[in-house]
Amino acid sequence: MKIKSVYVASIITAFLLTGCNNQSAEIKNSANNEPGSYETNQLQQPGNIHDTHREINRQIESIPGVANASVVLYGDSIFIGLKKDARYQGSDYSLKQKVKQSMQGLARKNILYVVTDRDLYNRIDKISQRIQNRKPVGNRELNTLMNQVGLKVKPFTLIQKS
What we know:
- With 162 residues, the protein is of the alpha+beta class.
- It is built from 5 helices and 7 strands; from the N terminus they run αββαββαβαβαβ.
- The strands form 2 sheets. Strands 3-4-5-7 form a 4-stranded mixed sheet, sandwiched between helices. Strands 1-2-6 form a 3-stranded antiparallel sheet.
- Strand 1 (27-29) and strand 2 (37-40) form a beta hairpin.
- The longest helix is centred in the N-terminal third of the chain and has 16 residues, at 2-17.
- This is YhcN/YlaJ family sporulation lipoprotein.
- It holds the Pfam family Spore_YhcN_YlaJ.
- InterPro entries: Spore_lipoprot_YhcN/YlaJ-like.
- It comes from Ammoniphilus resinae.
- Keywords: Lipoprotein, Signal.
């Protein structure tokens, strides 16, 4: 149990120390909101975080076997919650691999978490909906999501295309 705690603490520390690319969609601290709350950051490139969410959702939902997808971009990570199509006969692992392949080079993030667990999907979906509706998302809520997903899901490392 102590090893898991150390592992989770090191993952959180890595997330907090990782810099964000200006071209990526990110959530950043806003002085306009209450302390500890976050709001979406408008990108310097054409489009914004809402466009990035929609682009990723379209890409993931086009994969055979995916009924719905929800996305949260945080720090250097992408959290994707999946609802499988009822007719999908493959394994969760093969579906996650398809998502990983689809995401290679699409987003400028390095760590990908793909979740098929219904409870975690619902948490990701709830946060994603709030971001899409331009509602602030609290730092505590994002860190809780990172911890919960990090304990249950092994992340993929995405390779950036030049």
